[in-house]
Amino acid sequence: MSWWLSFYRSSLGKKAVMASTGIILFGFVLVHMAGNLKLYLGAEHFNEYAEFLREVGAPAIPHEGALWVFRIVLLVAVILHAHSAYSLTLDNWKARPVDYKKRQTIEATYASRTMRWGGVILALFVLYHLAHLTLGPSWAHPDFKPGDPYHNVVAGFHVWWVSALYIAANVFLGLHLYHGLWSMFRSLGWNRPGCDKPTRRFAQVFSWVVTLGNLSFPLAVLAGVVR
């Protein structure tokens, strides 16, 4: 345990942890988006998929057992990811207690410049999003129906400001994914000479696929394609 703490206290260790947990989070957002595409197949298929997630591993594993294991793993990954990012930020501030008199942006993108605040906004949105779809707050849609996720998603997105929050958060998610994925290749030493352009392209494609997929859900509901 001591060697792990010593490793994590170093900048290299924090970057490695941030990149490793990022892999888990990248996988989650991709699978989550792909699963939600069943929204276009109708209520029956979408609700069956939601129930399948609760019954994975049954009867060997109790009801929602595998889902809770996954939730715990995801929670730990989020905590480690956020803490390593916060620690690296503090290290950067300590290394330069006096800010630059004049900043020159040479090779930074908008995604990289909004990485820190984007992460905070995403964390707050995830808490809201989970509460919205699982607890059914009356201020979002009073006709919340337990056990009918398809209805709850459609009813929720019919509220314009709920859709607006979702769309804005997913724009930040796309920026976060792009810069985070490209940075991950460098942190894990996978970005070898000559691979910079392919890794950037992969990060762009990945972020666009996830973002456009997620944005399509509220837009489809608002347009009446999904009802």
Question: Can you walk through the features of this model?
Answer:
This protein is mainly α and 227 residues long. Helices cover 73% and strands 0% of the residues. It is globular.
Please summarize what this structure is.
With 227 residues, the protein is mainly alpha-helical. It has 9 helices and no strands. Residues 103-114 have low confidence and may be disordered.
The backbone outline, from C-alpha atoms, is globular
Given as residue ranges, the uncertain stretches (5+ residues, pLDDT < 50) are 103-114
Biggest sheet architecture: none
- The termini sit apart by 53 Å
What is the beta-strand fraction? Answer: under 5%
Q: What is the number of E strands?
A: 0
What attributes does this structure have?
9 helices; 227 residues; mainly alpha
Task: Give the arrangement of secondary structure elements.
Blueprint: H1 2-9, H2 11-36, H3 43-55, H4 65-95, H5 110-113, H6 115-134, H7 149-157, H8 160-187, H9 196-222
